[in-house]
Amino acid sequence: MAEFDLVIAGGGPAGVMAGLLFARAGCKVVVLEKHADFFRDFRGDTVHPSTLELLRELGLLGEFLKRPHDEIRKLTARVADREIPIADLSHLPVATKFVALMPQWDFLDFLAQEASHYPTFALRMQAEVVDLLFDGDRIAGVGLKDGEEVRARLTIAADGRSSILREKAKLPKTDLGAPIDVLWFRLPKEKTPTNITGGTFGAGTFVVEIDRGDYWQCAYVVPKGAADDIRAAGLDKFRTDLARAAPELATVVGTLTDWDQVKLLSVSLDRLDRWWRPGLLAIGDAAHAMSPVGGVGINLAIQDAVAAANILAGPLAHGEDVDPLLAKVQQRRLFPTRVIQAAQKAVHDRVLTPLVVRKAVLSKVPWPLRLFELFPVLRRIPARLVGLGVRREHIHSPDAGLRQAEIPRPPRGSSRSPR
Ligand SMILES: Cc1cc2nc3c(=O)[nH]c(=O)nc-3n(C[C@H](O)[C@H](O)[C@H](O)COP(=O)(O)OP(=O)(O)OC[C@H]3O[C@@H](n4cnc5c(N)ncnc54)[C@H](O)[C@@H]3O)c2cc1C
Q: Which of ligand 1's atoms lies nearest the C-alpha of 129?
């Protein structure tokens, strides 16, 4: 007999949010995360207005916003020494008209702590999933690296863009291709009264600078596979190239003194043709690896978790067979995934490939950006796509009323608080 109603592989945004919602509906859930904590630098730190709305629907927004965060209300592109506003979130039809910038470990910590109020929720860290368990043709749970087996009536693969479970389940995949990788590092910054997150287009270069108060989180976009050559050319050359690519960083590039400060993040853009098979559902990047373009992957991952819970959590909690419902989750989420990935691919092909791969030189502001300058109303379009996405989900999954004010003691071998 299955020990759990649901086992979720992966404690990222998709996995932890799904864990929270299914436990809230009364399902016995375990989330398995391979790392010992959530402290990893390479996670996007954006919590979008659509996610903030979901937290509001769950009654958690006030508590969430008590955690230290920054707020992005506008996005700016720097091209040919000009600043072009490209997105204005102030017109979004939601209460929180900003992207909250919060280290993702804090966001995940918050969701995990909230989930821990439900006695049917367990989060296990350092639990690396390496295999699927089968009951005939049906998936019946997962096998861990240490040989332990975790059996469940439903398995969710939320193990990100290098998902092992989607491979083990032999779910067919379409690779949309990604011509870029990202070098990811921090540089010091003076605190400014408003958040000045933006991107700088240079001569064959593009640098995204995420304003984190007293430091810039920088994403230096490079052609796929070029990182080894960049490293081989030495740190001096990298600093010089970076200062040329983003002159506003010239005074601080000297703080990069070791390649250990610069992480390579491999970018992929792909999508499963089928997100499920009996007993298993893939969500988030495991179903559709997102490019960092637009900074929207977390949004999609969370929306997938909400849709999965809306469709499956009630029936699963009532002991019903949810296999016939798995396809509905893909049907619901395929359209927004396609739209956003098509937009990301268009930016890869039309902007980043000519600029970063073929080293085009932008001597003047390209006309699409000029339109944002001339017609401010157009800035609402990227704001809407980034802030709310396409086909926004709302919480419809049931609340079984099990929430306890005090966080129950964790069962042996589980860890609720990631810190
Ligand atoms: C360079 C870069 C920058 C990005 N910046 C942003 C941004 O600013 N904003 C944004 O919205 N999106 C951004 N994205 C996209 C975003 O990171 C993803 O779309 C999002 O994290 C997907 O969430 P997820 O929960 O599906 O997967 P993940 O966040 O990848 O989480 C998967 C989790 O599963 C765990 N795991 C993996 N394998 C196993 C296993 N075998 N067993 C147990 N656990 C496992 C991992 O440790 C991880 O915690 C960026 C992507 C890249 C590449």
A: 42
**Would you call 345 helix, strand, or coil by DSSP?**
helix
Q: How many helices and strands, by DSSP H and E, does the chain display?
A: 11, 20
Ligand 1: which atom is nearest the Cα of residue 10?
Answer: 34
Determine the distance separating the centroid of ligand 1 and the alpha carbon of 11, expressed in angstroms.
9
> Do 15 and 300 contact (CB within 8 A), yes or no?
no
| Model confidence pLDDT, tens digit, residues 206-260 | 999 999 889 999 999 999 999 999 999 999 999 999 999 999 999 999 999 999 9
pLDDT, tens only, 42-84: 667 889 999 999 999 999 999 999 999 999 998 888 877 788 8
For ligand 1, the distance from its centroid to the CA atom of residue 333, given in whole angstroms, is 18
pLDDT in tens, 111-140: 999 999 999 999 999 999 999 999 999 999
Residue from 33, 130, 356 to probe ligand 1 pocket by mutation (most atoms less than 8 Å from CB): 33
Cβ–Cβ < 8 Å for 140, 133: yes
| Cross-strand pairs, 7 | 30, 155
What H or E segment, with its residue span, contains residue 44?
A: none
Mean pLDDT of 177-206: 91
Query: Cα separation of 181 and 8, whole Å?
Result: 28
Specify the length of the chain in residues. 419
The pLDDT, as a whole number, for residue 416 is 47
Amino acid at 137: D
CA distance 261 to 298: 24
> To test ligand 1's pocket by mutation, which of 48, 132, 298 has the most ligand atoms within 8 angstroms of CB?
298
State which of 50, 220, 285, 306 you would mutate to test the pocket of ligand 1, scoring each by most atoms of that ligand within 8 A of its C-beta.
285
- Ligand 1 — pocket residues by CB below 6 A? 9-15, 32-35, 43-44, 46, 128-129, 158-161, 164, 182, 184, 265, 267, 284-286, 290, 292, 295-299, 301
Rg of the chain on CA atoms, in Å: 22
Q: pTM of the entire structure?
A: 0.92
Residues 6+ apart with CB under 8 A from 319: none
- In degrees to the nearest 10, what's the CA dihedral of 70, 72, 77, 82? -80
Query: Cα(156) to centroid of ligand 1, in Å?
Result: 15
Q: Is 379 left (phi over 0), alpha (psi -120 to 50) or beta?
A: alpha
